[in-house]
Design goal:
The complex is a heterodimer. Chain A is of the alpha+beta class. Chain A is 27% helix and 13% strand. Chain B is mostly helical. The chains are: A alpha+beta, B mainly alpha.
């Protein structure tokens, strides 16, 4: 890149007195004095969360109200700070709506004191069961309070729309006789 | 109505008046610290402190909420905190002078008020009686003499703190005061040259200055700020420098001096320095208003007497001395507070000058300018008042 030499003009007398600059500065600050405020008053006013925000990790249910997690433990393995602990459990046969699902977590704990909000658990989940959603504020008085158990995770996660309906597809496939 | 007051012993009268003035100055100084935070916030597009509230004020439906948003109760919270927190005394300081310094800071700050009149009323003969603690004939001299004593507190505090940065801060404070006191005094001289016209008894009193700004006619009703703009400007700049306000607050520049002479102070002693600084600002603004801003005259070319006559057409009691006195005090206080707003406005607009720049402006720019200004007005006044 060529060097462009910019001529530095000598200051005019008015500029050297610094007074027009002061007046200009005062005008600028006065504009801000009466301008609408830019800040939010936090606990009452909350910021709008942009899409794709990585908040507190949560577990979600599918639109039929079934838990999606099958306790494959991939998230537990991938979690860099080892914040996730899953105890896998069986699903009893009498739960007819979940007849094709083999496993579900008996316990699912995320230690929010360890979690680094990296989102790898969401990325790795084959069942689209764990999501980092909008909640950005976690606080508690004890260490135990900062561990999110399964109930809390589902309460935080709620239900998200599903594009696949994996278990419904499996069920219709079996009904048509081509179960694998 | 107030005869019983005038029958009291003069000492008791003086004490009562002094206490009354202190009771006004102290809360205003406190409110100024709050106003500073609010103005800072507004200029930075923030709402500023607006949470603290006293429960029984919260019960007032609309007004209570308004006061809360204005942050009025943060003053009490700040003051209460300052009053009740531990008043620590560092082990390495010279204890006597360390404790003496904040007291020395308060004394000149509150003493200058005595020489500053803050209102006027007309007696039955139509004569102007100024309201003030002491209607001194040497008004301006008294203010100059006492207000510069404030720097002793900075020197004492800086030296007694027995620590590097406070010491540097106090050295800067005294150097800055000396540099700007000169041009300040020279800037004021044309006003008193004009006021001490031939045929009048010589005086340095503020009452005369204001009286001169409330005469009829174009030149008579002109405030000295318009008649001597350069004097007013030099006085204002020197006032900023002497009260250690931005952009001249090299004395307290936290980036190179930690906290300057009050680095080692905390709690109420620190608060006293703070109140003293604001009292200086209030008195300085008041003096500026008296000298260049028309004193208690509401508008340029509209004197207090004219305003009262206009009001007399609407209000039957407008000529009552009590009403005129209160009105004049309100006008004067309003103008002074507007000046204090200017101080804050400038503070949140301009960056701080470097120390060498402060010295350069003081000695190489302001001083020659004020001397030239004095010469010009001395000749002009000699020609006009011949």
């Amino acid at each position: 890149m060529a060097v462009i030499t910019v001529e530095r003009k000598p200051l005019t007398f008015l500029e050297r007195t610094y007074l027009p600059q002061i007046v200009g500065g005062l005008a600028t600050t006065f504009k801000h004095l009466i301008a609408p405020k830019k800040t939010l008053e936090y606990p009452e006013q909350r910021p709008a969360i942009p899409p794709g925000y990585r908040g507190v990790p949560t577990l979600v249910r599918d639109p039929n109200g079934r838990e999606k997690c099958v306790s494959c433990q991939l998230c537990e393995f991938v979690c860099p700070p080892k914040a996730i602990r899953i105890t896998p459990g069986e699903i009893s046969a009498d739960q007819t709506d979940r007849v094709h699902v083999e496993k579900a977590p008996q316990a699912f704990d995320i230690d929010m004191l360890r979690c680094i909000y990296c989102g790898l658990c969401q990325e790795v989940c084959p069942e689209e069961a764990i999501f980092l959603q909008n909640q950005y504020s976690m606080s508690g008085y004890t260490r135990a309070e900062m561990v999110n158990h399964k109930d809390k995770l589902y309460e935080l996660g709620g239900t998200l729309p599903d594009q696949h309906y994996k278990w419904d597809q499996k069920k219709t496939a079996e009904d048509h006789g081509n179960a694998h | 109505m107030f005869d019983f007051f005038f029958q009291l012993h003069p000492v008791i009268q003086g004490l009562a008046k002094g206490l009354a003035v202190i009771m006004v100055i102290f809360p205003i100084a406190g409110a100024c610290s709050m106003a500073e935070r609010k103005v800072a916030a507004w200029i930075q597009d923030r709402p500023g402190p607006n949470r603290a509230i006293v429960p029984w004020v919260a019960w007032i439906p609309f007004f209570g909420k308004f006061l809360q948003r204005l942050g009025i109760f943060h003053v009490m919270a700040d003051g209460g905190k300052m009053l009740f927190k531990e008043d620590s005394l560092p082990g390495h300081v010279n204890k006597f002078y360390f404790i003496l310094a904040p007291i020395v800071a308060m004394i000149p700050a509150l003493t200058t008020v005595t020489a500053v009149p803050f209102g006027a009323y007309f007696d039955s003969a139509g004569k102007v009686i100024t309201l003030g603690l002491a209607p001194l004939d040497i008004g301006m001299l008294a203010v100059f003499a006492v207000s510069s004593l404030g720097v002793y507190s900075a020197i004492l505090a800086g030296w007694a703190s027995n620590s590097k940065y406070p010491f540097l801060g106090s050295v800067r404070a005294s150097a800055q005061l000396i540099s700007y006191e000169l041009s300040m005094t020279l800037a004021v001289l044309p006003v008193f040259l004009w006021v001490n016209a031939p045929g009048l008894p010589g005086t340095m009193s503020f009452g005369r200055v204001v009286e001169f700004q409330s005469q009829p006619g174009f030149l008579g009703g002109m405030w000295f700020g318009f008649m001597m703009p350069l004097s007013a400007f030099i006085f204002l700049v020197a006032l900023f420098a002497e009260t250690n306000r931005q952009p001249f607050d090299t004395v307290e520049s936290e980036s190179d001096l930690v906290g300057s002479f009050h680095t080692e102070y905390g709690a109420f002693k620190w608060g006293l320095f703070f109140v003293a600084e604001y009292s200086h600002m209030i008195v300085g603004s008041g003096v500026f208003i008296l000298l260049f801003g028309g004193g208690w005259n509401p508008l340029p070319w509209v004197s207090l007497a004219t305003a009262v006559d206009w009001l007399g057409a609407i209000l039957p009691f407008a000529h009552a001395p009590l009403f005129v006195g209160v009105l004049s005090i309100a006008i004067f206080l309003g103008k002074t507070l507007a000046m204090i707003f200017l101080f804050m406005w400038v503070r949140w607009t301009l960056p701080r000058f470097r120390y060498d720049q402060v010295m350069k402006i003081g000695w190489q720019k302001m001083l020659p300018l004020s001397i030239a200004n004095l010469l010009f007005y001395a000749i002009a006044i000699a020609v006009i008042q011949k």
